[in-house]
């Protein structure tokens, strides 16, 4: 998996929220936080932040209704509730900067408050190190990643408008699990002028839909008390096209800024043009609110009776312990003769 890079967000001192497609078939992987920088040659030996701060993943959990078919042609099931919770070998220190890193890692709360944070017209933020325009071949998969973390503002749009750009076989997934954001890069005319783009199903006008949708949009509450510590001390240049592309998968869709920010979605899928591999929208994110119980029980299942029963049944989720005992990098910290903290 050296060719892949995925995003994620800290939601607890020991737990990460990311995409199921990123980790479903990965047996060993690291979690790194505290840096804005990325370079292709970075590894745990040469980069001081990774060397001193990389943490082994020791447990992962995905929804039961998720099926990874990413290696199959014309696949679709990997988009079905594409979300996962990962546990690391020891907790992040939210009071100390790791030597070689740029900032102290901080958690962000996840949306278990209100689905109104997903309302059309809401402006939210995405971030990642991935490519800014197109998917690459296997050989060059990481060469066009960004060296600095990029952020961009995006706007949530109604699902009915989103589905006009996505084929009918995606509509059930969009209705049940996704948040959609507007493609504010190329205009519709620019996309349709390219001969290899099939525009038969692309017939909507942003202005017309905006007028129709204006009457039903509810205002997003601004007085929610959301406890988090989202790092807001330093930002790099924003992406101009307001979307995401390759190697941004699993990154957060965030509402608000500062201590009141909250992650509302996980980066999941974009449209890709056949001949040029260019990425365009509408862009899809797996809803955190619709998975709020799954996330809560993944973190607190040993403390809450309902979650203990739910996880014992195995009806709603699949979990797996990741052992490093026989790995060349050595055992995880929880395997070094101490009592394991991996959920039972």
Automatic annotation (TrEMBL):
GO molecular function: serine-type endopeptidase activity
Domain of life of the organism encoding this protein: Eukaryota
Entries under Gene3D superfamilies matching the protein: Trypsin-like serine proteases
GO terms of biological process kind: proteolysis
Domain Peptidase S1 span(s) in chain numbering: 1-324
Segments for region (Disordered): 324-344
A Pfam match: Trypsin
PANTHER family xref list: GH08193P-RELATED (PTHR24260:SF136), PTHR24260
Entry protein name: Seminal fluid protein HACP038
Biological classification of the source: Eukaryota, Metazoa, Ecdysozoa, Arthropoda, Hexapoda
